[in-house]
Amino acid sequence: ENATSLEAPVHEVTVSEFYINKYEVTQLLWESIMGDTPNDESDMQWEEEYGKGDKYPAYRISFKEVETFIGKLNEYTGLNFDLPTEAQWEFAARGGVLTNYALYAGGDNLVEVAWVNCDKSNEVGMKSPNALGLYDMSGNVWEMCQDWYYDYTETSVTDPVGEEYNEGYKVFRGGSWKTNAQQARVTTRYRQGIHYRDYETGFRLIIK
Length: 208
Prior knowledge:
Helix content: 10-25%
Number of helices: 4
Order of helices and strands: EEHHEHHEEEEEE
Strand content: 5-15%
Largest sheet: 4 strands, mixed
Number of strands: 9
Radius of gyration: 16 Å
Shape: globular
Distance between the termini: 34 Å
């Protein structure tokens, strides 16, 4: 009943096994792999005003910069990290098969599980986790997905991923520190271009 047109129609989705990070990618992890902050321009650095520190989520990063980060992380670890698809993200946010449907990642009590309507981002892992032990999947920063934005259909699908370029829009999920309860729901979808950066958007990784 709270859904927007971007979330409809309701359809059945099956996802194969995957692992997902417990936390959003932090500023410490980003700097450890990349050697510096995302951008040289002073107006694009991480700032105290929006949350700055080792345990804060990395933000103000474009899709292309995330691609570079993932490439370096995979080379360094010898593993196969990637952005989650929308389906993987939502399955994880809902708590997989361990929980009944809840509005937010971790339950229906937004204050317990999400940073929203705040002055800035917050350190990861400070709110209650969901049934899978995952933190901040509602609120803190919008989380970038692998998918190009696409419209849902009523057809049942397995491991879907939006592969159509669709004017360069990537899907983001989960809401942010600046958004409201409506946008922190586990089904909320948001779209932005591949060069988009702001203080509300970050990402989490999966491993296959």
